[in-house]
Amino acid sequence: MRNGIHPVSRPVVFRDRAAGFQLLTRSTVESQRTVEWEDGTTYPVVDVEISSASHPFYTGTSRVVDTAGRVERFQRRYGRTTADRH
Description:
23% of the residues lie in helices and 27% in strands. The protein is an alpha+beta fold. The chain has one domain (10-80). A four-stranded mixed beta sheet has the order 2-1-4-3, with no helix packed on it. The longest helix is centred in the C-terminal third of the chain and has 12 residues, at 67-78. The mean pLDDT is 83. It comes from Streptomyces canarius. InterPro entries: Ribosomal_bL28/bL31-like_sf, Ribosomal_bL31, Ribosomal_bL31_B, Ribosomal_bL31_sf. Keywords: Ribonucleoprotein, Ribosomal protein.
């Protein structure tokens, strides 16, 4: 690797306040705010709006959208049939 061109990687806490979830990992992101981790060490903290703890896909609260029914309803509403497309 060439010297001086790569950003510095450091331990950073990513925090999802909505879910009460925190993750300590390495990142190049910079933050002026800090938080004390469970071991008593202080780390920079970045607040995120959504994480795996609050995202509907990961929490199992996501809805399955019936796209076939929507297409058929649209075609009925506007009078378009499959024969019109060919």
